Amino acid sequence: MSTAITRRSAPSREHGPRALPDTPVAAATGSDDRPDPLRYLVSYNTRNLTKVVAEVGRATGAYWIDAVQRIARPGDAARRGLLWISAMADRREPTWHLANEVVLSTPFASLRDFTAAEHRDDDVVPTLVLPPQAGHSSTVVDYSPQQSQIAMIRASGLTKVYALDWRPATTATKNVTISDYLEVIDRSIRRMGGKANLVGDCQGGWLATIYAALHPDRVNTLTLAGAPIDFHAGESVIAASTRLMAGTMGMAPYKALVAAGGGNMPGSAVLSNFISIQPQSEISRQLQLLENIDDPTHVERYRVFEDWFKYTQDIPGAFYLWLVENLFWKNRLIKGTLTVDGRTVDMGAIDCPLLLLAGSADHITPAPQLFAAAEKVGTPAADVTYRTATAGHLGLFMGRDALRHDWPVLMETVYGHSVPSKKDTGAGKASRRRSSVRAVADPRDTPRVPAP
């Protein structure tokens, strides 16, 4: 279960644009209370190694117990082994599951319209979902017929739903910039009517935040899930490794990766980084497959996840290097020193309702990195919503628990800001909540696949 929804209760603050000092506090005082990155990474990897050993030990014990029980069938172990190898090798391209239409196309992104024909004239503000972009397919927001963020949003009453589909980088798109990404968001919202609810998952979240700061008049509500806004807050292996690498060698290692990828950041390299952050999840997923190889439900859930997780796509090199330098390394968004095309990205210009969803077990984006957004926006305190789901990073976007328990509550709030002002009955709210919950399969008594 997830934690209950909470509203702002932090000390009062001024709203609206604020002048920020040119020199960060840490630099001005000569202090930095963040843990030493090398020491933190050694400690983190040591803990991970302990978890890997424990999982291998658990799986080995389970395997031998199972082998003893199957001793009368000596050929069974070979059969199961072959099935295991076959299942691990059976990869397919992830697909979109809900019917949709591509209504805008560029070389690096497409706008998909998921609005059903019978809802095209609904009097509701359209919603635009910005999926993560970290070397994987955008289909994570429509992960499966049983686990679809898009389906949940539609069922909550936000019937006009669109999603940007980030396309794999090619030689032709290696020089795509942050300006190009912001432009395609703007073109999409103008095509949708000129104003939209923005929902940003992970990287899509900081991208949505930058857009909302530059175009506050086009954003009705801003929902961020697992999105790093203060890239240096909390304990994060990504922040520590970036601080260590960039702090000692600058951008050279990242530029070398992009050069090796022909001008793009290879999706396979991003996948390797994700796996190295939590190797125990990868090992556990493969060993649990062996244990449950005769369970077709488990094998199918494994296949669906692996199809998405292991099917990688490259990221435009220029865009990747920009975000590493400006966000991951120099943390300019939260500092208020980020500029795009000569314009300062002032989060204080964001004054729409802000909804923040973090994961209690999110090792990619710890909650403080996301919740820091509330301290910088101009949104009134009463219109800032926090929620913490019992989920890891990916579980925030495609996990059935988060989709059934957390997203419906948030989207009900968004819906209240998206329809003509009129008194809504409690029964109407309950009906929308039930509809959005039913849009996602009940996770009880079903096998779970370990995921980051």
Detailed description of the structure:
It contains 18 helices and 13 strands. It has helices at residues 25-29, 37-69, 76-89, 149-155, 178-192, 203-214, 237-249, 252-260, 267-277, 279-291, 296-310, 317-329, 332-335, 367-371, 395-398, 400-405, 407-416, 426-438, and strands at 6-7, 101-105, 109-113, 127-130, 161-166, 196-201, 219-225, 264-265, 315-316, 339-340, 343-344, 354-359, 384-389. The strands form three sheets. It has a nine-stranded mixed beta sheet, with helices on both faces. Strand 2 (101-105) and strand 3 (109-113) form a beta hairpin.
Provide a brief overview of the structure.
With 452 residues, this protein is an alpha/beta fold. It has helices at residues 25-29, 37-69, 76-89, 149-155, 178-192, 203-214, 237-249, 252-260, 267-277, 279-291, 296-310, 317-329, 332-335, 367-371, 395-398, 400-405, 407-416, 426-438; strands at 6-7, 101-105, 109-113, 127-130, 161-166, 196-201, 219-225, 264-265, 315-316, 339-340, 343-344, 354-359, 384-389.
Tag the structure with descriptive keywords.
12% strand; two-stranded antiparallel sheet; single chain; alpha/beta; nine-stranded mixed sheet; 452 residues
